[in-house]
Amino acid sequence: MTIKSTLTGAAIAAALLSTSAAAEVLFWSTQAKPVEEAQAMREQVLSGFAGEVDYQPNDGGPWITRLNAELEAGSGSIGVLGALHGDFSAMDPENLVDLDDLGVSAASDTFNSLAMLGTDNMQYIPWMQASYIMAANREALPYLPDGADINALTYDQLIAWAANVHEATGEPRFGFPAGPNGLKHRFFQGYLYPSYTDGVVRTFASEAAVGAWEAFRELWAHTNPGSTNFSFMQEQLLNGDAWIVFDHTSRLAQAFNDRPDDFVAFPAPAGPTGRGFMPVIAGVAIPATAPDMDEARALVEHMLLPETQIATLRATNFFPVVDVELPDDLPPSVQAAGAAVATMSASPDANPGLLPAGLGDKGGEFNRVFVDTFERIILAGQPIEAVLEDQKETLMRIMEETGAPCWAPDAPSEGACPVE
Amino acid sequence: MNPRLLPYVLILPVTLFLCLFFLYPFVLVAQQAFSDGSGFTLDNFRDVTSHWKFPISLKNTFLLALAVVPIQLALSLLMATMVNRMKRGRDLILYIWTIPLGISDLAAGIIWLAIFEQSGFLNSMMGGLGLIDSPTNFLSYQSPMMVFVAIMLAEVWRATAIMLVILVAGIGLIPKEYYEAGEVFGATAWQRFLKITLPMLRPSLQTALVLRVILAFEVFAVVQALGGTLFPVLMGETYEYQFTLLNAGAAAAIALIILGISIAFTLIIMRALRVPKGATI
Amino acid sequence: MTAETTDVAEVGANTRKAGQYVYIAAVVLLCAWVIVPLYFLLINTLSSPEAVNSYPKPFIPEFDLGSLTFFANFAGILTALKNSILVAALTMVMSIAIGAPAGYALSRFEFRGKELFRLLILLTRAFPLPLLALPLAVMFIRVGIDDTIFGLALVHTTLAIPFAVLITFSLFSGIPIELEEAAWTLGCNRLTAFQKVILPLVLPGITASAIFAFVISWNEVFAAAVLTIENRTLTAFLLQNLDTSPLHLKFAGGFILVVPALIFIFAVRKYLFAMWGIANR
User: Fold this and answer.
1) Of A163, A191, B176, C36, which is most buried, counting CB atoms within 10 Å of its CB?
2) pLDDT given for residue C273 in this prediction
3) Considering only residues 98 to 157 of chain C, which have any Cβ-Cβ distance to chain A shorter than 8 Å?
4) Is residue A59 within 8 Å of residue C240, measured between CB atoms?
5) Strand partners, A125
6) Which residues contact A233 (CB under 8 A, 6 or more apart)?
7) Which residues constitute the signal peptide according to the record (chain A) (predicted)?
8) CA distance A295 to A50
């Protein structure tokens, strides 16, 4: 080998092996993943930060794998984590830096106490919030049952409405995110169960729960059978495969932004025990292996600034967690979703639930209980009572193993939340 | 060099490489399947196999492999022989047929969902031809057969090229004289295919089949795109355990089960298509 | 008598002609089978968001470049493209350099542990990479090759090696050992015989392995997402965010990922037949 080629080889090797030690903070996030949102995060939300930020949104798999690898190796490049409450609660709090001394927190004490993950310190800082709502194509409005107020629907009225649309158009046009990446479990945990049984865990296999599943089965009869492929209901709203849908506010946003005049957003329906609904909380945290603690802390503080929170709202359709004055020129999706959530919270029969807490890394298994129940009762057509009795065993085991106490709307418990 | 050592020298680089980047992490992961944090246990295997979805995913994975691989084998053999006797445009035709090779399974899922979804291209086409009044729902839980067929078509489209490329490279090595001799003795095209092409192609056939079968048991992305929650497969369950349920032990257990199935099929194929050393004429 | 023979000849000509038509029709049909789904992807890529969501779907693209422009302006996409190409090229070189000798050894020698070695090779493909990514990432961080092109190429090489070894193995097996032996008697040693006689013959197979290596590396998402941060590959950069993105961007992103792979296969396709003449003697 000549000297020249040796040198070139060395240069190439250096280029291929370079781990440039840039002072960028790596923001490792499971949120704001869609390419447009990621772009907006970089250009509008993080450009205001004094330092440099490398914003990298990821699927859950790579996110957790990389994070665990860095924690296990004892050194890493991730500066700040952005993820849902559930992602953080599955982690060992030891691996997250306590953030109390930052002096920033959410306006809601409930959120702040959730963020302690059962310890005495803030393990993450609430970053943004969202919820699940209903949306409909305006073409569906004429089929609303007589006397129904779209802002105060009941489940019975929703079923009748979906049935009317089905009959009139010949197509079942209720849309439900039952796809592999759909958030169906949240509907059962935060909407159906609280509305019918005033509980989630205690009442899992109750008489009232049987009624809830019967009602859902009726609704399913008017649901687009392709729903098992739907994960982002904005797609089906836009292409007309579904007229009335339930989903996460940010998974409906594109429909409202693309064609604001064609769709309406409205609160989730009410059942015999009120209008159940639940929040979504995302937080920011710092892993114990963060390379530059000070910059990471500065970035977390930056995320909680009122301006940043409003920019985040525009970029991601997630609402602020601190008290801010919202401007008037927000995107149509934000306006529609904001109004629907406000109506839902202010309704006289509101029955707000909380996110599952204290489940640790069993959060996924807890969700699977509900998904399995849905698939067995609705898709496989198995008898409701038998399925509930069977799944109840799994739920009881999870609650006993984790010792998680009940959360709203379940009545508080001493020790592990019992399945009655 | 000592000829007895030569083979070992030749396989040394691969062996070292795989030990470092495959066996080492593999052993670490496989251990998790047999441990519950304190000692040896088979609980993970018991847990995953007793879940109600396991038999369904197992059945689905097998059915899909059984339906797809023979079609792909026949199709790729057909295509390879067609390319082989082509006089003009061989390059171009072969290129077109190998295109799906460059398409990741995620992208293939996106493409085929656009065809089969309710407002997709297939319905648009049938509507345009006046075959249907309103778009039908192909991918619904009410028509599991249709879902299966859709997944099958997409898999045949996506992964036949893998076998085709291997077979084409192999078929080029069969000396033309054999065919000429066959023709002299009045063998029909079909007889020539059976008596010359198939036996001579055995090494390539074996490789193509083994690789394809192993990949068939790991099928995931296309199935998830088209089948949604309706068509669970083993690999989907593995990822579910690993990333949603955060249960690494259970995930490793299912992955080992898939590995076991793959090895069993590999051994069967290798036995059935045994390649004689040096393929003497 | 004369009339009879003409009849027979005519019938023969007719059958041959009919056969020719069937043959051409089959080629055209198979080409359409591959191309039409890709054409749909092209339509959706070149459509406005409204058209992508419309029903019935258009069958002629309206040449709206909005979605592609979005990606053209996407920060970092060119760097990601460069990284992807570098990783794929390294993977190609390493997997063939390491894999081909082993393929030769497998086809030409009987040695102890041969079956075990083959099983090790296959095992590599039968276990899902996402499960191995965690121990690999820990190792890479400790060694200091985390977030490097080279590190990722090592992992992709592990994925490509089974293809390289098995394809070269099947092709070497298809070449009669007498050819080599003849070269030895004519004064070549093992190495020069290999260079002058075997290498030209297996070039198509090497090309096939190269295509596999390139495509495997190009389309791999999981390891790329975990093992690269600043040096993200195009797939890690784009693909894993596509499933949650609006439809029109999903299709455009998918299209962008497909095109470079197609260009690569196009560029090397002729080597699949490179030594056609020699092979057919």
Assistant:
1) A191
2) 59
3) 130, 133-134, 137-138, 141-142, 144-150, 153
4) yes
5) A284
6) A135, A175, A177, A242, A245, A246, A247, A251, A252, A255
7) 1-23
8) 9
Let me know if B239 is exposed, middle or buried by CB neighbors in 10 A (0-12, 13-18, 19+). Answer: buried
Q: Which range marks the domain in which residue B125 is found?
A: 29-274
Alpha helices (H) along A222-331: 233-239, 253-258, 293-303, 306-316
Residue contact C53–B119, C-beta within 8 A:
yes
Is C163 inside a domain boundary? yes
What's the pLDDT at A120?
Answer: 92
Domain boundary among C66, C86, C102: C66
Q: Please check whether residue B101 lies inside any domain of the structure.
A: yes
Overall number of domains in chain C: 2
C121, B153, B243: which is closest to A90 by C-alpha? B243
Furthest-apart CA pair in chain B: how many Å? 76
* pTM for the structure as a whole: 0.89
pLDDT reading at A185 higher than 50: yes
Q: Given CB atoms, is C262 within the 8 Å cutoff of chain B?
A: yes
Tokens for A274? Answer: 């009120």
Final residue before a domain boundary, out of C20, C42, C66: C66
- Asked whether residue C71 is domain-assigned, the answer is no
Cβ of residue C218 closer than 8 Å to a chain B Cβ: yes
Q: Within 10 Å of residue A348's Cβ, how many Cβ atoms? A: 8
- On whether both C17 and C133 belong to a single domain, the answer is no
Pick from B142, B141, C245, C238: nearest CA to A235: C245
CATH number of the domain within which B68 lies: 1.10.3720.10
Is the omega angle on the peptide bond into residue C204 within 30 degrees of 0, that is, cis? no
Q: Does B242 lie at the interface with A, CB-CB under 8 angstroms?
A: yes
Tokens representing C129 are 């990479």
Residue of higher predicted confidence among A176 and C163: A176
Domain hosting C250: range is 76-280
Query: Total domain count for chain B?
Result: 1
A35 touches chain B (CB under 8 A): no
Are both C122 and C55 inside the same structural domain? Answer: no
ipTM: 0.88
**Averaged pLDDT score across all residues of chain A:** 91
Same domain? C46 vs C85: no
What is the separation, in whole angstroms, between the first and last Cα of chain B?
Answer: 28
> What are the tokens at B110?
């996106």
User: How far C240 CA lies from chain A's nearest CA (Å)?
Assistant: 6
CB–CB contact C229 A240 (8 Å): no
**Cα C154 → chain centroid:** 18
CB neighbourhood size of C69 (10 A):
11
In chain A, the domains with their CATH numbers are: 23-130+280-335 (3.40.190.10), 131-279+350-402 (3.40.190.10)
B177-196 pLDDT, tens per residue? 888 888 888 888 888 888 88
